[in-house]
Amino acid sequence: MPNLLFADTKGRIFDSVQHQALGLSGGDLVPIPASEMVPLPEGSELFVIKKGIIAAQRDGSPVYLERVGNKKVYPVAAFMPAGYTRTLMPAYVERSPDPLLPLWSYTAVAWHKGKICGAAKLVARNPKADPELHSPEQDKRLIKLVEQRLKQEPDNRLLKQLARCALEYHCFAGKNTFYRRWELPLPTSPSCNARCLGCLSWQPAGKEGCCASQDRLSFVPTPEEIAAIAVPHLKNAPSPIASFGQGCEGEPLLQSETVGKAVKLIRNQTARGTINLNTNGYSPQRIKALTSAGLDSVRISLNSSIKKCYDAYYRPVNYEYSDVLKSIKTAKDNGLFVSINLLVFPGYTDREREAEGLLELFAKYNVDMVQMRNLSIDPWWYIRTIPRPGGRAIGIAELIKFFKKELPKTRIDYFNPFLG
After folding, report:
1. Nearest to 242 by CA among 189, 283, 185
2. Tens digit of pLDDT for each residue in 26-80?
């Protein structure tokens, strides 16, 4: 069995041969299967959780550790790069709910076969997400490319936003803008009609919130500003995708008129590439209008097939969960490639009631792809706030197998697709 990893007060990491590692699954502490241990790939990050008490196992019995020998110790977790879906979260209990942890997808780690490993499954391998392509050495070149591009288009506010995303937030998609490759982000909306618990770009001040990962876009770009960036990218980049709906904005459908005009401008100049919309899917009518404008694909985000779980996380304003389901149907009926951005949370997403509901939803609407994305949030915040679905947890690895078996025509993936 994998051995426990822990950190001391200086952040140094040790393993303990006397303790077996546990993982957290929806509030339950469970052994980590050796079959789910993946050596941490390039691009992973390690975290020390200083507000937690370690949970481990010794001689088959659970133990809680605040000290090992004369060392005060803390739980360790990992963030794993795109393509890996975590199967368990780090096993710890909170000393206090405050402060909330930053918005990362915390993954259980252990020492196994001479390596630090994470509890995860590789869902999709994409060479475009290789961390080496975003190394500090590459970023030296990026700075020059950003400077050159801003000199060429000094008045384009959206380009300045993407420069900030690339250089300050190290957004991989933002960097693609200046490397002229693959998926291009097109943030458009400074507002949102959901108050997602784990929103990356807006969190309420005070006790109930945590720090947002980045500042939200503060303006609505013009269709011309959008097209000026998107057209040359779609014309020249390899496997080009232009995506509305990014982590640095709110809900792009709230700016559907601007998005629609931009899509028409783009398609009047090039038919190449994929134009995609990442959305909460609150308005089937607006999705239908964007389809007429030239949209190719849509990715609709869900954390659950159960209304009360969806509502507790998204906290929608002036729309209902039923509207999201209508949007999925509308997108399929109008010929769009439809992906579900499934926000995976171990011990919730893989519970029997949830797994059955998700399967029924994906099959009913003939979804083209399910993206198994890790939900970035303080684990115990989610557990305290979101109702837990019924049934036992079958495990994320088994859930993936279940989907692949029961949905043979649906791609189980991680990344937005280039449609050719």
Report:
1. 185
2. 999 999 999 999 999 999 999 999 999 999 999 889 999 999 888 899 999 999 9
Residue (of 353, 364, 357) closest to 394 by Cα position: 353
pTM beyond 0.90: the answer is: yes
Rounded distance between C-alpha atoms, residue 367 and residue 123, angstroms: 18
Contacts for 81 with CB less than 8 Å, ≥ 6 apart: 41, 42, 43, 44, 129, 131
What are 339's two structure tokens?
């992906």
Tens-place pLDDT, residues 222-268: 999 999 999 999 999 999 999 999 999 999 999 999 999 999 999 99
In three-state secondary structure terms, 338 is strand
The domains of the chain, with CATH numbers, are 3-122 (no CATH), 128-413 (3.20.20.70)
Three-state DSSP state, 117 = strand
Q: Nearest CA to 191 among 176, 181, 205, 201?
A: 201
Question: Contact, 305 vs 311, CB < 8 A?
Answer: no
